[in-house]
Structures are given as structure tokens and as C-alpha cells.
Amino acid sequence: MNREFILETHLTEHQLALFYLGQEGFLIKHRNMYYLIDPYLSDYVDRNCCTENVKWTRRYEPPILPEQLDFVDYVFCTHEHFDHADPDTLHALAQHNTKVKFIVPKPCETIVSAYGINSRRIIGACAGKELHLGPCKITPVPAAHEELHTDENGNYRELGYRLDFGNASLFHAGDCCVYDGLAERLAGTDLLLTPINGRGYYKLREDIIGNMTAQEAVLLAREIHARLLVPMHFDLYDVNSVNPAHFVDCLYQINPKQAFHIFVPGERYIF
Q1: Per residue in 29-38, pLDDT tens?
Q2: Structural domains of the chain in order of their starting residue, each with its CATH number
Q3: How many CA atoms within 13 Å lie on the side-chain side of 132?
Q4: What angle, 0 to 180 degrees and rounded to 10, lies between the N-to-C axes of helices 214-224 and 244-254?
Q5: Residue 173 to residue 194: CA distance in whole angstroms
Q6: Overall pTM > 0.90
Q7: Average pLDDT over residues 239-255
Q8: Cα 87 to Cα 121: distance, rounded to the nearest angstrom
Q9: Residue closest to 259 by CA, chosen among 221, 216, 212
Q10: Over pLDDT 70: what percentage of the chain?
Q11: What is the bridge-based pairing of β-strands 131-133 and 136-142?
Q12: 239: closest CA among 54, 37, 100?
């Protein structure tokens, strides 16, 4: 993938283009606007997060470098973990793109600002408070990672983002488990992007906080009648991955009529 491949993607007024960057990173193009969600385009985790028991090693290189994304309009981070709000990626984006704004959960504003990003370029997002960015309406939704966490002001530390483009809507769950009321918040969503790497005692013991399982993702998609289900968070790190074949098996057992797409890094998909 390179910047020309993205910029030269021509769409109709009603189309979306999704470019997969790995882990939970997606670049979304609508008309001439670019929305970047959870970009992790370095090896920051590998260099800073390994322990005696857990070794983080990227399975593939980033499909694009952050300095090539000088045309992006908005960057969204779902929460503060480094593979979602990467200090190296965010700093490089801010250095090479003078127009980009950063949308992060309200409790994460000071964390992201400490990465060398001017606070005037940061927009603190709060659950339920809509943002209008270009032709897109954004609704932040609480994310349970593995539980719902709030700061002293009641603002959620982890969010998902629903993007409404008029004729199509997309929900990026961030790191999230299913909780009471989530499906109601997502009713009418066309594209559902969810993690599928699951959770468990031994992961949590090593401070690897989990997400919904493949089965839960399929059941959620069925409940909200999503037109397309996209699994995330399954392919970058062996210590926190899952075989996507299990996701496909769950889907065919639970709801074989569900449309889905499994991305490879650097792939473009037009909806």
C-alpha cells in the first residue's frame, strides 16, 4: 500500500473505501475525506511492553508509514493502549500533517497531548455526544474492555465510534466485550467492525485485557442485522491472536447468511 493507491481510489458519492492497516487500524475514505481509526504503524509495543512471560513481536510490517498519511483529516483513538493510541504513530502523524485533528476519549486527552500533539488539535469525545466532522456524524459509544471504565467525571475511558455517512453507517468497536444495551446503541449499523480475540484468566493474569469472542461477534451482528461483519484484533501478535477460521466456523454454525469480510494488511475494500 502507498499513498497514491489511496488517493487514486475513486468513489461514487455513496461509496466507502476501507483500507486495513493491521490489528484494529482502518483508514476510511468517503468522498474526499479521510478518517483514520486506531492506527498502529510502528513497533512501539515490541520495544516497550515485553515481560518475562509475554513477548510481543509483530507478525508483519506496517502496510504504510504514518508520514505518508499527510492527507488524513481525522484520527480516532478508541482508548489509551499503545496498539490503539501509539505514541510513535500519533507523533509522526502530527508532525507530517498540519491539518489533522485527533479524536480521543475525554480521559485520554492529556495522555495523547504528552506524545507531542498540541492540545488544540485534540478533541475529547464523550459517549453519546455527537460530533459532525465533514459529511460524517460520529457517535461515541461506551466500550467494555473487559468492563466499562469511567474517570472521576463519569467519562468512559474506552469508546467505540459509530460513523454515519448518510446512506451507510459503520461502527468500529475498538476493544470491546458485549454488554447490556450495546446492541440497542448499534441498531441500523451497516458495517460492524469488532474484535474477536476473546479473553481469559491466563491472558488477564499477564495484563492482556480481552475482548468479545468470535461467537459473540457473530451473535451481535445477527442481533443488529448488520449488512457486513468485519473481524479485527486477531492477526498481529501471536500472544493475543486467534485463528480466523474459528470465526468463519462460528458464523456458518450460527448465521450462515451473514455477509463478512476478513482483511489482509494493506487491502482495500469498497462498500
Answers
A1: 999 999 999 9
A2: 3-270 (3.60.15.10)
A3: 2
A4: 40
A5: 5
A6: yes
A7: 97
A8: 15
A9: 221
A10: 100
A11: antiparallel
A12: 54
Radius of gyration for the alpha carbons in the chain, expressed in angstroms and rounded? 17
Mean of per-residue pLDDT scores for the chain: 97
pLDDT, one tens digit per residue, over 191-229 is 999 999 999 999 999 999 999 999 999 999 999 999 999
Give the model's pLDDT for residue 62.
97
Tell me if 84 sits within 8 A of 180, measured CB to CB.
no
169-174 contacts: CB < 8 A, separation 24 or more? Answer: 170/16, 170/28, 171/141, 172/24, 172/26, 172/37, 172/38, 172/76, 172/78, 173/78, 173/143, 173/212, 173/232, 174/24, 174/38, 174/78, 174/79, 174/84, 174/143, 174/145
Per-residue burial over 182-221, b if 16 or more Cβ lie within 10 Å, else e, is bbebbeebbbbbbbbbbbeeebeeeebbbbbbbbbbbbbb
Identify the CA nearest to 172 among candidates 8, 20, 58, 13.
Answer: 20
Is the torsion defined by CA of 163, 189, 158, 234 positive or negative?
Answer: negative
pLDDT in tens, 148-204: 999 999 999 999 999 999 999 999 999 999 999 999 999 999 999 999 999 999 999
- pLDDT value at position 61? 97
Residue 10 to residue 22: CA distance in whole angstroms: 23
Would you state the cell numbers that stand for residue 64, as one nine-digit string?
A: 504504510
Mean pLDDT, rounded, for 83-98:
97
For residue 6, is it left (φ>0), alpha (ψ between -120 and 50) or beta? alpha
